[in-house]
Amino acid sequence: MRVAINNRGEVAVRIIRTCQELGFTSILLHSSPDKNTIAYRMADETVELTGSSSLETYLNIPVVVNSALSAKAELLHPGFGFLSENAEFVVALESAGITFVGPSAKSIFTAGNKIKAKELAKANNVPVTPAYTGSETDPAKLLAEVRKIGFPCIVKAASGGGGKGMKVVEHDSDFFELLSSAQREAKNAFGSDQVFIERYIQKPRHIEVQILCDTRGKRLHFFERECSIQRRHQKIFEETPSTAITPELRDKITAAALKIAEAADYTNAGTVEFLLDEKNNFYFMELNTRLQVEHTVTELVCGVDLVRLQFAIALGHELEIEQTDISQRGHALEVRIYAENPALEFLPSPGTIQELHLPLGPHRRFDFGYDVGDTITPNYDPMIGKIITWAPTREENLRRMYSTLCETVIFGVHTNIEFLKSVLLNKKYQMNNVSTRFLEEEYKGSFKLSELTETQKEFAKTAAQKSTTSTGNQNGSDLSNNSGLRYQSPWVTS
Predict the structure, then answer these.
(1) Which candidate, 287, 398, 413, places its Cα nearest to that of 335?
(2) Cα–Cα distance list, 412 to 31, 349, 352, 409, 415 (Å)
(3) Domain range for residue 432?
């Protein structure tokens, strides 16, 4: 099979690896700035999309479809973001005789649009937050609708996710400016400026359920993920299982997820997202009709390859596993590594990676899109990659992730690694006393090493010390001057 991949970075690498295992030919559709990436070097074939911006390349339906046709692709995997939730794109592919590795156009039209998804949830007695999901576009009339819902409210893009096109509005005096900003972001990220507005729950947890549905009516869930640690509505920490979910609540929330999937006649991989309030009431938020960035933690805990299963469903195969075959084993945690400067309000830090050391070890997984010599450009999201760890318990896994981050070396660009370590050392996080406002409350929107406690500063200081011993790395580089980080584990007591 010949598989076109309309994406970039670590997700493109992830898809290519599964193509290699299946014996499929991978064809990377890429923009010019994405030539210096791992995916470009790994793909069996590459086709350049003319242009550099997202709207010119990855979001340009005619260009993408024609490029896939020119490469004689039989399937196209969209990854996440870009056109992965665009029903018009699926129709265009089908008309060209190319199979979309994802849900049907009908499913995306029904459930991928967040407005229609909320209406579907309400019709099937799944709890939703109060919202305005009408077609009104006049800002003044929208403000009138918001006043009925009540402040604070949140404006959301109707056709996407990933924190793009989302703005929290505390007061009506800020509404017009933030509405316009959300619409601009949505247009640039997803090609549509349609938004909807709902009441903002002050301190919710973000809980999502991974689902997988074949074309023959079998619908499965792969339990929940907790994604409450977010910055600007974008997830940074993702883990499973969630300590906030009791067995009884898990049964209810997964049943609600499958109920929505059935109502939408859903196929392929998807994620049903919920907000959990402080009284453990859950509310349907959206159905992401695609693979998620954080699918990795589900794979480690449930022992599955979700991309492989996506291909199987797209090719018309029946899922060979049953719900009773799926169980949760241990705890998995994912953190996202960004080229950004936390001390400068997380300003993106484009540049060339001069050194990269990823400390391989038991139950450590590295999904990266860049290597030594590659350039993080200002054209796209500055995520370098993801680190995922697994352990039998959450407490053990926090230790494993901390030690992994302490040994990870990236030179040439600023990264958020020290910030991630500080979150792991936070007692509230360790006790899982969190909400989607955790970072806002704990870090006040910024991060400076001077703001850490004296104990945490000592940990950070020792973690940054360089060992005099060379350990080498998977890139074959000489790290004799900067490898083998030593640190004092904060969990070791005398």
Answers:
(1) 398
(2) 23, 9, 6, 10, 9
(3) 205-464
Buried b (16+ CB within 10 A) or exposed e, 164-200: bbbbbbeeeeebeebbeebbebbbebbbbbbbbbbbb
Q: Is 246 helix (H, G, I), strand (E, B) or coil?
A: coil
34 and 154 belong to one structural domain: no
At a CB cut-off of 8 Å and minimum separation 6, what does 453 contact?
none
344 in a structural domain: yes
- Considering only CA atoms, which of 123, 134, 140 is closest in space to residue 158? 134
19 Cβ contact list (under 8 Å, min separation 6): 3, 25, 26, 44
pLDDT tens across 296-330, in order? 999 999 999 999 999 999 999 999 999 999 999 99
The residues assigned a catalytic role are 290
Residue 458 has a pLDDT of 52
Within-domain flag for 487: no
Query: Rounded to whole angstroms, how far apart are CA atoms 401 and 334?
Result: 9
The reply to whether 109 falls in a domain is: no
- One domain, residues 327 and 407: yes
Question: How many domains is the chain built from?
Answer: 3
Is the separation of the CB atoms in 366 and 358 below 8 Å? yes
Q: Find the helix packing angle between 247-263 and 114-123, rounded to 10°.
A: 110
For residue 102, give the amino acid letter: G
| Residue 306: partners with Cβ closer than 8 Å, 6 or more residues away | 210, 212, 222, 269, 291, 295, 298, 299
Report the CATH number that the domain containing residue 375 is assigned in CATH: 3.30.470.20
- Helix/strand number for the chain, H first, E second: 16, 25
Task: Judge if 155 and 287 occupy the same domain.
Answer: no
What angle, 0 to 180 degrees and rounded to 10, lies between the N-to-C axes of helices 175-190 and 139-149?
Answer: 110
156 and 198 Cβ atoms separated by less than 8 Å: yes
pLDDT of residue 486: 41
- Distance CA(168)–CA(151), nearest Å, equals 9
Q: What is the pTM of this model?
A: 0.83
Average pLDDT, integer, range 155-173: 80
Cβ partners under 8 Å of residue 403, min gap 6:
487, 489
Q: What span, in angstroms and rounded, lies between the C-alpha atoms of 45 and 67?
A: 12
| pLDDT average, residue stretch 91-100 | 98
List the CATH number of the domain containing 97.
3.40.50.20
Could you tell me if 178 and 228 lie in one domain?
A: no
Mean of pLDDT over the chain: 88
Question: Is 120 among the domain residues?
Answer: no
Q: State the pLDDT at residue 489.
A: 52
8 and 69 share a domain? yes
Rounded mean pLDDT, 456-475: 39
Q: Are residues 16 and 66 in the same domain?
A: yes
Instruction: Report residue 160's pLDDT band, with 50, 70 and 90 as the boundaries.
Output: low
Give the phi and the psi of residue 351 in degrees, each rounded to 5. Answer: 160, -175
The SS3 assignment for 282 reads: strand
